[in-house]
Specification:
The chain is α/β, with parallel strands linked by helices and 284 residues long. It has 10 helices and 10 strands. The strands form 2 sheets. An 8-stranded parallel sheet has the order 8-7-6-5-4-3-10-9. The two termini are 14 Å apart. 48% of the residues are buried. Bound molecules: 6-hydroxymethylpterin-diphosphate.
């Protein structure tokens, strides 16, 4: 009985089949203050080098972000965010990188210009509920959309998965009203975003409930505090924990994994694919 439903994402220039083969989104933060890699890739050449490394290791998508969501991080203006992300996107495309590039932003203006520079997927950590105009950008440009659950006003006494389903109802209504194709939407439970430690693990345990909504699911746990707090280790010692969550997310039916460390996650996911479907039969 396959755990993975099959979908197809079609960012410009590529077709990404989602199913048994786990897909990897490599994180490229061009920010000075991201929690684990801030300041490392802000120079364009360093960003390009890291993107190339991640692709060589098996990344399917490069996710470029210009504003940290780390608790306590300052929000940046659209102009500042654009000044960070546009040179990086342009450099990747100028260097001949054809892989899908997602732009990690909730700002419609940033998404619009990032797409003009070569981004082909929008990744919105506010699930269209911060700037609903982002939906119109995705619709008019025909760009797939990752929508993440982040509800700071959530009633923490209520069931987290039920609240998430209600949040996504709103998100999906905004998307639908703007004319976003249903086939271009990916859901993300937003690990670490306004959630307690036990809620993060409950979401991982109950991920099949999100998968059952009938959209591809992206898991983003890489180096996060749900691992660091559990193990009492800093961000650079969270790889084994990250890999464990990726594998658990995969066996629960998730399709995409947003990670910093491509190779170890890829290897573990290839093994998980073989365990679920057999060593020859996972690429569909
Ligand atoms: N997490 C972060 C940022 N963007 N996007 C999606 N779809 N899902 C996530 O879980 C997610 C995300 C936070 O992690 P990171 O980019 O490593 O750090 P920072 O926000 O400090 O740049």
């Amino acid at each position: 009985m396959p755990v993975h439903r099959e979908y197809e994402l079609a960012p410009a220039g590529a077709t990404l089949r989602l199913g048994r083969r786990a897909r990897l989104m490599g994180i490229l933060n061009v920010t000075p203050d991201s929690f684990s890699d801030g300041g490392r890739f802000d120079a364009v050449s360093a960003a390009l080098g890291q993107a190339r490394r991640m692709l060589a290791e098996g990344a399917d998508i490069i996710d470029i972000g210009g504003e940290s969501t780390r608790p306590g991080a300052d929000e940046v203006s659209a102009a500042d965010e654009l000044a960070r992300v546009l040179p990086a996107i342009a450099a990747l495309r100028a260097d001949g990188i054809v892989a899908p590039i997602s732009i990690d932003t909730y700002k419609a203006e940033v998404a619009e210009q990032a797409i003009a520079a070569g981004a082909t997927i929008i990744n919105d950590v506010h699930g269209l509920q911060r700037e609903p105009e982002l939906a119109a950008v995705a619709a008019s440009r025909g760009v797939p959309l990752v929508v993440m659950h982040w509800d700071k006003a959530r009633d923490a006494s209520r069931d987290v998965m039920a609240e998430m389903a209600r949040y996504f109802e709103v998100t999906l209504r905004i998307a639908d009203e703007a004319g976003v194709a249903r086939s271009g939407i990916v859901l993300d439970p937003g690990f670490g975003f306004a959630k307690s430690l036990s809620e993060n693990y409950e979401i991982l345990r109950r991920l099949p409930e999100l998968v059952a909504l009938g959209y591809p699911v992206l898991v983003g746990t890489s180096r996060k505090s749900m691992i660091g707090r559990l193990l009492d280790v800093p961000a650079d010692e969270r790889l084994a924990g990250t890999v464990a969550t990726s594998v658990l997310g995969y066996t629960a039916g998730a399709h995409l994994f947003r990670v910093h460390d491509i190779r170890p996650n890829r290897d573990a996911l290839r093994v998980a694919e073989a365990a679920l479907y057999g060593p020859q039969d996972q690429d569909s």
